[in-house]
């Protein structure tokens, strides 16, 4: 839960080129049901399923603000039809700018106060990962692909017997 640059070392590995060493293991949290719902959210974000995103927003207690989940996590609007990790068409860039301009501090504050505490941990960690990936000069699609893979694993019956 605390992957900032001071807690991560990159070490040389003769087989794979490098590997990451995590230094601070002070923040861990078992997500249980929220973990499953987070996997469902990422599946909906990757598949651009606006109905499921709205449904999950209701379950998280932030239905009014669920349209901002794609904006926060994927830098896409909820109506986006362009593939994640790829460039945005000019029309979508315009829509994204308008969506961002429509937000005000009251909306942001109300949204953050309405989120379950586990979600705030996820947001914080995602922000740190976004920043690290940017600082390393890697494309954000790496982050999106990792989340997609983790969501698939988290939703699989083998990893989560309650997932159905």
UniProtKB/TrEMBL annotation:
<dbReference type="Pfam" id="PF03109">
    <property type="entry name" value="ABC1"/>
</dbReference>
<feature type="domain" description="ABC1 atypical kinase-like">
    <location>
        <begin position="2"/>
        <end position="55"/>
    </location>
</feature>
<dbReference type="InterPro" id="IPR051130">
    <property type="entry name" value="Mito_struct-func_regulator"/>
</dbReference>
<dbReference type="InterPro" id="IPR004147">
    <property type="entry name" value="ABC1_dom"/>
</dbReference>
<protein>
    <recommendedName>
        <fullName>ABC1 atypical kinase-like domain-containing protein</fullName>
    </recommendedName>
</protein>
